[in-house]
Amino acid sequence: MVRANDIQEKLLHLIGWEQNYDTQELKIADTLTVSESGLYFQQVHPLLTLQNISSIAPDFKNIVYSEYSNEKHYGKGSIVKYDGNLYKSLQQTTGNLLTDQEFWSETNQLSEWLEGKTKASIQKAIVRYCNEKIAKGTYRTLCENRTLFDGTGRLTDIIANKNNLVGFEIVPIRSKGVTTRINRIGIQTDGVGEIKLFLYHSSTELPVKVITVNKTNKGFQWFIIPDLYLPYESEETESGGSWYLMYEQSKLGNMHAIRKDKDWSKEPCNSCSRREMQAWMAWSKYLEIHPFKISEESLQYEEDKPLLWDIENNMYTYDNNYGLNLDVSVNCDITDFIIEQRMLFQDVIAKQVAVDMLREFAYNPNVRTNRHSINASRVDILYEIDGDSSSMKKSGLSYQLDLSFKAIELSTEGIDRVCLPCKNNGIRYLTV
Known about the structure:
- By secondary structure, this protein is α+β, with helices and mostly antiparallel strands.
- The protein folds into 2 domains: about 5-135 and about 335-400, no CATH class; about 140-335.
- About 20% of the residues lie in helices and about 25% in strands.
- It has helices at about 5-10, 50-55, 110-135, 275-285, 335-340, 345-365, 380-385, 395-405, and strands spanning about 75, 80, 85-90, 95, 105, 140-145, 165-170, 180-190, 195-200, 210-215, 220-225, 230, 245-250, 285-295, 300, 305, 315, 325-330.
- The strands form 5 sheets. It has a 6-stranded antiparallel sheet, with no helix packed on it.
- Strand 2 and strand 3 (about 85-90) form a beta hairpin.
- Helix 6 (about 345-365) runs antiparallel to helix 7 and helix 6 (about 345-365) packs antiparallel against helix 8.
- The longest helix has 27 residues, at about 110-135.
- The radius of gyration is 26 Å and the shape is globular.
């Protein structure tokens, strides 16, 4: 497993796109021209010009963007229109001027399309790298799609709202490269309405993520949460520590959570639920779950978000789940390893983007033609990609890409005892 968004963001500027000579005729966003390696995609193949790319790009004229408002909150990646130009937010922002380069960057529709294509190729290259690791036995998965427990609480076993911040402390295994993913959050209540959940890490003051769910029926309900990762370490959090998934009881109103009768301090009863026992045996090797509460009176707030409290004041309640259940996966995650060693992937990414873009030229799915149409036939382009199929000698960009993957056979064996173990095939005796 890799965290796709982190991979794409951190490797996007490893190789850049050269700006067009005539920026009056055609220009891409300056952010796409950044190159950490000093390499540019146009250097890979002469057909990779911005004019050729523009000729097969979609028709953007029917795409409408909202006008910028300094009173509206914008998340990272939001695109707004102002005075005929487009701007993209670089981080969460409210009221910051569009000229503030810390928060906004000027862009255009071609740039956004080209960025999306580049990110897709980066992800494709990294997925192939990981799959080859799995096939060789030097990379593995750990625990797939397990719920913390089976069943639900009795509808009459409601939890009184006592103005506490309640939820789970989640302690992942102390192992580099292991990431827990929360696939679904289950909530059982006696009413309906909106519930806001906060995800903290013990090294961050503000919530890492705010999750708002809308319960539409009484009783138990699952909510699929995309991209909810709890890594052992990341660029945003320190190594180790604990994660906290919480909600405020005071914000439930007339709604109450329903308690599941379960003792979190010991293993489940095997004779009571064999399935729950099997699930516990799978996830408990990599996770610790501790239900707890903290009084809301001791909390400080910033923009209606509770700040991280003194975790020494946590009151652990091992007979209560506060209406929560989780569907989790625990996977080996080499995202941070790849980001740290990203320079080793520059040739792979360069050729992967080139191959994918040339195929886009060959098949032209958007059926665009104009005076800048590519001066090469489909047969010629496919020959550049795949080489001469009638020849015994392999050639073409795809073959060069294969060689680049072999060149980064990065030895990750032994880096981590859990995820990247040494592959010991023992001693083999042969006769000569």
